[in-house]
Amino acid sequence: MKSEMQSFSDIAAKVAVRSLIEEVELTPKPGLVDQVNTGAHQDLTLQLMIKSAETLTDTFKNIAFVSYGRNPSQALREEIAAIGRIGERKMFEATGGVNTHKGAIWAIGLLVSAASIGKGRFTIKEIVKRAGEIASFPDRHCPNTNTNGRIVTLKYGVGGARGEAQQGFPHIMKFSLPMLYRSRAYGLTEEKARLKTLLSLIAHVDDTCILHRGGTEALMFAKKKAAYFLTKDNLECINTLDEEFISRNISPGGSADLLAATLFLDKIHALKAVDEVQKYELIK
Ligand SMILES: CC(C)(COP(=O)(O)OP(=O)(O)OC[C@H]1O[C@@H](n2cnc3c(N)ncnc32)[C@H](O)[C@@H]1O)[C@@H](O)C(=O)NCCC(=O)NCCS
Ligand SMILES: Nc1ncnc2c1ncn2[C@@H]1O[C@H](COP(=O)(O)OP(=O)(O)OP(=O)(O)O)[C@@H](O)[C@H]1O
After folding, report:
1. Is the pLDDT of residue 105 over 70?
2. In whole angstroms, what is the distance from residue 170 CA to residue 163 CA?
3. Pocket test for ligand 1, best of 52, 127, 175, 208 (most atoms within 8 A of CB)
4. What are the recorded Gene Ontology BP terms (predicted)?
């Protein structure tokens, strides 16, 4: 029989991978890979994104397993960083060197770890708080390479993926989760609710993917346009935004990662209320 720790790790990994797949399958999305086009990307496809997500199951499972019932600490930070880096390697092997989910491994990896610290019983607020604590321990084994994110965070003085996590995912707590819940309560279809959730992120996140490709001008453009489309009831015209992003080479990859992280938190929270048998039914 499986231990509680093994069951939770299996479930958390399934929910994490499901969230990644649901993010990429959401269509339309401006500038991002979806079921209709590959957005502002020449090297990514829907199939590659799904394959990449599926290779990450063991990474998330192992992160949950080593985190179960522990407290945030330097030791835990280093253990999950090592697992996260193995995950990144597997992702690059599966995609032939293309970056499909680097930011997502980071954000969702931390959230999986935090949820597992609480043995699946934490509230969303507790999960993001613990994730922030883990991310705030120094990454002593981080290779000293000049990643796009690092170059851009220094150049423009923004927090990027690291800052977002260290602060306890403020854009999820302030914008995307409230938008998801409000849109559902308002009676929007789940698809539209998720699209609005994504737009709420693009309108506020200092996305290093956008900054790296197009600087401040592109970031300002993306934020302004997303805020404008959020005021529209008819979201069908989102295809126009997709065309504008593609023509300017804008890809809000950081917001896409945070959308997947939002879906992860929403699902993990929903699973708290059901018993073990129902859990497996729900995540099948
Ligand atoms: C912190 C990470 C993301 C590296 O960050 P860095 O900015 O140097 O890298 P890079 O530019 O290659 O990737 C940044 C990624 O974050 C996403 N992103 C961009 N902006 C933002 C933002 N504002 N908020 C959240 N995510 C963002 C993008 O999609 C992008 O893919 C991460 O790869 C890392 O350090 N991993 C080590 C393994 C680890 O510690 N894991 C622990 C948990 S699994
Ligand atoms: N649906 C999606 N479409 C495109 N990118 C996504 C999607 N979902 C998540 N992302 C995120 O966007 C990032 C890819 O962005 P990008 O290709 O700009 O990064 P890069 O490879 O670091 O830089 P560049 O391609 O500009 O040289 C991935 O790390 C991934 O986490």
Report:
1. yes
2. 10
3. 208
4. prosthetic group biosynthetic process
110 in ligand 1 pocket by Cβ < 6 Å? Answer: yes
CA atoms within 13 A on the CB side of 76: 25
Residue with the two structure tokens 């998801």? 180
197 lines ligand 2 (CB under 6 A): no
* Cα pseudo-dihedral 50, 256, 123, 196, rounded to 10: -120
Greatest Cα pair distance in the chain: 56
Calpha distance 103→85 (Å, rounded):
12
Q: Report the interhelical angle of 253-272 vs 177-185 (nearest 10°).
A: 60
Tokens 């000049």 sit on residue: 146
pLDDT above 90: residue 209: yes
Query: ipTM of the assembly?
Result: 0.93
Please tell me if the CB atom of residue 105 comes closer than 6 angstroms to any atom of ligand 2.
no
| Residue nearest atom 21 of ligand 2, based on CA coordinates | 99
**In angstroms, what is the span from residue 164 Cα to ligand 1's centroid?**
10
Least distant ligand from the CA of 198: 2
Domain ranges for the chain:
4-283
Classified by CATH at the fold level, domain 4-283 comes out as Triphosphoribosyl-dephospho-CoA protein (1.10.4200)
Interval 6-60: pLDDT, tens: 999 999 999 999 999 999 999 999 999 999 999 999 999 999 999 999 999 999 9
Q: Is 148 in the pocket of ligand 2 (CB under 6 A)?
A: yes
